[in-house]
Amino acid sequence: MKVLIRFLRRGQANAVEAKERLFDGEALTLGRSTDQVLQLKDRRVALRHASIALRAGTPVIASRSPAGIVVNDTLCRDAALRAGDTVRIGANVLRVFEPPAGIDLGFSFELDAEVAAEAAGLDSRRLDFQALSWRRAPVNWALAAATLALSLVIPASGLLDEGWQDRLRGGPLPDDGFWISGPLSPAHHNVGWRCETCHQQPFERVRNVACTDCHAGVGRHFAADGPVTGLETMRCAGCHAEHNEPATLVRRDDALCTDCHADIAAVAGAGAGIEDAADFHDAHPEFRLAAGGPQRLKFPHDVHLDPEGIEGKDGKDVVMACGDCHRPEADGGRMQPVTMLAHCADCHRLDFDPAFPDATVPHTDASTVLRRLVEYYSRSFLELYPDPQATAQPARLARVPGRVTDARERARLLQQARERAFTVARDLFERRSCHDCHEIAATGDPDDPWKVEPAKLRTAWMPKARFNHARHSTALSECGLCHDAARSKDAADVLMPKIEDCRECHGSGDWHRNPQNRVQSSCTMCHGFHDARHGAWEGAVR
Amino acid sequence: MQESLLAYRRMRYLWAAGALAAAAILAYALHRPPEPPNGGTWLGYTLGGIAAALVLLLGAFSIRKRAYASTLGSVRGWLSAHVYLGLALLVVMTLHAGFQFGWNVHTLAYALACVVVASGIVGVWFYLRYPEQMSRNRAGETREQMLAELADLDRLCAKQAAALGGEFPDVIVSARDRAALGGSAWAILAGRDRSRVVLPGAHGGGHAQPNAGQSRLVDWLGHELAGSTDGERTRLIHELMALVNTRRGLLERLRRDAQIRGWLDAWLYVHVPATCALLAALAAHVLVVFLYW
Amino acid sequence: MNAGHHRIAIVGAGPGGLSAAAHAARLGVDHVLLEASAAHAHTIQRYQKGKHVMAEPPVLPLRADLPFEAGTRETVLERWRAGLDATGANVRYGAQVTAIAKDGAAFRLSLRDGGSVTADHVVFAIGMQGNLRQLEVPGADLPCVQYQLDDPDEYRGEVIVVVGAGDAAIENAVALAANNEVAIVNRIDEFARVKDGNLKLILKSIESGRIGCWYRSGVAAVERAEAGAARPYVLVLNTAEGEARIACDRIIARIGAIPPRRFVESCGIAFPSADPMALPALSGRYESSVPGLYVIGALGGYPLIKQAMNQGYEVVEYILGRDLRPADHPLFEEKFAKLRFGLTVDDTLALIQERIPLYREVNPLQFREFMLGSAVHRPEAGAVIFRRNDYTDSFFTIVDGTVEIEIGEENPYRLKLGPGQFFGEMSLLSGRRRSATAYASAGCVLVESPRREVLKLINSIEAVRHHIDRHFVIRAIQTAFAPNASDEELEAVAARARVNDWKPGTVIFAEGDEADTLHLIRSGSVAVSRNIGGREIVTSYVAAGNYVGEMGLMGRTRRAATVRANVATETVSLSAADFDALLARNPELRQKVQALVRKRLAENARISAQPQTGDIVSFLMQQGLGEATDVLLIDESLCIGCDNCEKACAGTHDGTSRLDREAGPTYARLHVPTSCRHCEDPHCMTDCPPDAIRRAPNGEVYIRDNCIGCGNCERNCPYGVIQMAAAEKSGPKKAVKCDMCKDLSGGPACVRACPTGAAIRVGPESLMDLVARVER
What we know:
The complex is a heterotrimer.
Chain A: E1 2-10, E2 16-24, E3 27-31, E4 38-39, E5 50-55, E6 58-63, E7 69-71, E8 74-76, E9 78-80, E10 86-89, E11 92-97, E12 105-111, H1 113-120, H2 129-132, H3 136-157, H4 162-170, H5 208-212, H6 236-239, H7 255-261, H8 264-268, H9 301-304, E13 310-311, E14 317-318, H10 322-325, H11 340-344, H12 366-383, H13 407-431, H14 433-437, E15 440-442, E16 450-452, H15 469-473, H16 499-503, H17 523-526
Parallel strand pairs in A: 1-12, 3-4
Antiparallel strand pairs in A: 1-2, 3-5, 5-6, 6-9, 7-8, 7-10, 10-11, 11-12, 13-14, 15-16
Helix pairs in contact in A: 12-13
Chain B: H1 8-30, H2 42-66, H3 75-97, H4 105-138, H5 143-164, H6 168-177, H7 185-190, E1 196-198, E2 208-210, H8 215-227, H9 231-266, H10 268-291
Antiparallel strand pairs in B: 1-2
Chain C: E1 5-11, H1 15-27, E2 31-34, H2 42-45, E3 52-53, E4 71-72, H3 73-87, E5 91-92, E6 97-103, E7 106-111, E8 116-124, E9 131-132, E10 145-146, E11 159-163, H4 167-176, E12 181-185, H5 196-207, E13 211-214, E14 218-224, E15 233-239, E16 242-248, E17 250-253, E18 257-258, H6 260-266, E19 293-295, H7 305-319, H8 329-337, H9 345-355, H10 364-373, E20 375-377, E21 384-386, E22 395-400, E23 403-407, E24 413-417, E25 422-423, H11 425-430, E26 437-440, E27 445-449, H12 451-460, H13 462-480, H14 487-496, E28 498-502, E29 507-509, E30 517-523, E31 525-532, E32 535-543, E33 547-548, H15 550-555, E34 562-565, E35 569-575, H16 576-585, H17 587-609, H18 611-622, E36 631-635, H19 644-652, E37 666-667, E38 670-671, E39 693-695, E40 701-703, H20 712-716, E41 723-726, E42 733-736, H21 749-753, E43 759-762, H22 764-775
Parallel strand pairs in C: 1-2, 1-8, 2-5, 8-19, 10-17, 11-12, 11-17, 12-13
Antiparallel strand pairs in C: 3-4, 6-7, 7-8, 9-18, 14-15, 15-16, 20-27, 21-26, 22-25, 22-27, 23-24, 23-26, 28-35, 29-34, 30-33, 30-35, 31-32, 31-34, 36-38, 36-43, 37-38, 39-40, 41-42
């Protein structure tokens, strides 16, 4: 495209000076910027305001700024230029005239003299960053207001109306979830981002009722009528802090306990019978085993654990291990209780008649056993004539089955059977099977002549502490490291380890008093705050 | 000659801020809260209180700066304290947060404070770096003087060009009109020379061409000079060239001056609005903490 | 008694003449008031339009039959005119008196128009302005020629030629140049004898092309231009290059006035000295050496309107033979009440004048005036009158009792002064801090006179100047070299010592000269420079109160450095012989001087190694730091251009910043913004009609609220730091300048508001330290 531009300047007495310039290029650009073909000097003009290019052979002026251009006093976006047209952009006037041959477009260009004068003087404002950039004050206020609205006002508006709160939570606007100070612990995810579940009253700390709504029946630390007051008013959240990373809902620090237990007498009075404990390693009383009398069981661990072996059920010698009797519970924590049936009966069979080794007495109280024996022998004496002397021949063959004896005979047989049962029972209770393990005393009552003391086996020797065998299994795979069973001759031996044994690995609750790489052992490692005696914790969630 | 604002009074505020930060770190290290460290432990509340007080104190600089009759220390001392305590704030508030962050109003306040402190650090760097450059660049002249000088040079160039006639007046006028100087905030900060010039026929066919550093114009003048056979004309072109060179230097200096002063101001366009947002976020943070206690 | 005879003829219808005529008219005394111009109060008529006229001194009651209070020029003139009409005074305008001669018992007053008037008594109230000189060339009577300029804003777009090169011409030319094309015609090729401020103003205007200047040119003629010319008149000039013709609209001739003294002397009135500033000798009743001839107003030494009006009233009373206590009598009564001398005011004044030899030669009226401005004290025994390093500059004379002056810092020595002696002249003359502490003893009675009053006295009475000068020398020697020498011992040395005035830039002594004198710098400051590598390098700056030249004298060699006055400087020079004698008196002194020599030698060596330091010193001297007592500097390596200093200044001073940070020169990181230097002898103070510019006890030069906005100080300040600004939008413009925030606790707001510590204030004491720090 070839364009002839005629620059007009009005001099004195309105004399017009003209200067011509020929443009040859694709598009003639107009604007305030320095790179425009035609530089327009007016502050109102955009940097790149318009361009003129050929469209299908016709020169067309098109606006490149939102302001548009005025062609023949009509505001438009683009227009074809014909001779006689007048284009105004700011103070600049373009008048199109008939171009000479070989030229696509010709126009005169005139600039308002005053605007030119204004533009000629260099304005120091153009160099002043402060003058050219946005004014800070409105932005400051706007930013502050927006921040306040988004982080406080809008979320807080949900507190006024539940319906609106729900809509906020569903919508894109910030809700009170924006206020969360840390992730909710997974246990509480069922709360479902409803802050008001716990934060029931604004500006009030989370109340215990918010916890006990769900966690009903949580055990108290001690009985409500105990000697210490004040603990009833303790806040659940005082120990169970939510919204924390890493998520720890339970206090693990010693101070939880030692605040009182370091000098428990000061809190609970001297007569409470509780010893002071301030630190597992440095200040903790010796383990105190559960109260209760002798076990009343004759059980030498050493015999059973004889490395040479012990006579088993088939008379063969077997070598026993701890695990043969002591099986951990499913959670690996404590051991399952040892029972006669499961663990002893294989070897310690309760048969009483060598002729019928399969006949056994139940493992129960003496009178029942005696009754069973009387019944057993009565039946066999009545069915078959018994010949107690002819033990070499089977008794049942001595009589013809189905033969009815007379009453005298019957009474004699029953008397014999009874005597026999007593004899066998005496053997059982006073010399053999029962007597092997149990302590038995004669009562002098012919109907119930023996009293068997039941064995008192314990599953928890230290009921106020937790112990998990599984946790220790890798480190202490040999039970003997803690429980000196191999040398125990008496069932009365308590094989629980001493506190010193634990302290070999378990150190103080305070890491910097824990010098030899011992396990840092806080109170809560073994003890719980909530006492199961006063209510259960587990499974209490409604 | 004078110590810098960082060295004010043997860096007393550095020591103060350092002591504060060190005390906070020590307390944090020794603190054994029953739960993970966070803003809700007693140390958390304490550090939070200190941090909030610091923010207010730092914000009060803006008030003190304008309270010209105030005798509450010198502004210089305030600024020195502002800088160092701002850095200490970074430590104190991080410990207050217990390194717990999330998408919430609390972290928003923290992030805004970080933006404010970071922009402040940039500002201090500018303050330390630019004044000397600005002074050197100005060579004792004010901007108005330089602009007046430029106007004089423009006039002289135009006069010289008119004397030469031919293409000269148009070229010189276009170089004058299309000399880019400032214009928009970004143009000032970038400091790029987007000057252009329209050269006649053989040298560009009337198109505006980049003329950064007036190099195109000087090239053209050189070309004209080489082609000149008339002694008087050669002398005039020489003189014009000298004027153009002086003008080029002046343009550079003006542009650089605007740029330096622009940057000395520009960082405040982040610092101050971010501070306002921070104050709002801080207010929300404090309120919300107690709203959902 | 013929019609041309009056009992009293009053010459000049200024405030004094008007008041006299009005009083005479009211008393029915036959009188005539002769006024050369066409209206009353010619000087005030020539004031700029709307100018505020003051009623100073405010304490003095007005005693006249014409009303007067402070107000605009127009109100004052209008009220006088109305008052004059009301009293029916006999005024003859356009009657210029050309001669007065004794004609028998009466005086004959010849008038310019050829007539004459006779009178029994003549009252001279002609003021100091004299008659305006007029152009005496062809065409001088054309309407385009005028001799005064009321309102420069009246003229716009005209071509105006101002003839003359004095202050008035320059002020008119500069004012007119705002809206007109102005040329100024100067007979010689420089502007001599003008105020510094005006000199700078005109040279700047000429340099920038705003005002054209015809040097070495005189007016040859004024002509009407040919018809059709662009400008209606043509001024023809004789220039060094030949005749020049300037087409113009207007010619303003400000070619000075004929001073009245010659005329006054021609009437037989005697003056006490040839000093052009001297006032005629007058009695207490304003009667001159010619009986029956009275002098009142400015010519008699009373330049203030209120005083002149009072005198006009009083002189008529005196002529009528009545006794009248002067208007200031109650003021004196109050002032002297605490003296408990039991004497009348006049006797007390006479006693004081008699007691104090310094004042003996002052005429009683002048002394009365002087005492009116002074204060009388009866300090408690042991009271401190002023302390060393105070910035006060008042002057004390001892009427009774004794005063002890403690000289020296390390081994203070107390000098005892008795009645009739004076002290405080060191600070008075140097403008610097007090160099000693003064203690009163029991029964001490002192007169404390403000600097301005004393300077007036010094300038008008040679004897006073001489007395004070000699005393100054003695005290200066005592302070510097011989604290324990008595006045008598030093009398001879003092008599031989010379007081030298040095213009700025003059060489006091040059490197290589023979060392024969020692200079004690009394006021101003000097720069010491050495020729290093062919270049003159300033090595140090020595402020008033110190001495230079000792190095040459100690070694009795040639001068090792050049000493040049930075600003207008006064030194007291001692000959080598006298200096030796002083050294001989006091062996400690020799050590002291030697220590100083060593210090200066070390400094020289350091500066020689770092010649740039010298450049910094000379730069600072150029910027007027040589006379500064406290100046604002900006360390450009720290300045971020936030303008907080200006904002703080404006914020604490009615919204007008008294400093312009950006303006002002820069050298080696040091920027000297346009801001007051608190000069030791402030240029701004030299011509302040209401005496509004004061120096506060801590050295701050400030402008009081009674500023009338005349703009003299703005023009006189060579550093351009005073501006005229209105406190409120519509309020009158007053001069404002830095007052170092003297009313704010905590020091100057600009420095306190600088966030980076770039703005600092330095005094002469710390200047060299600063320069050393710039180097680092």
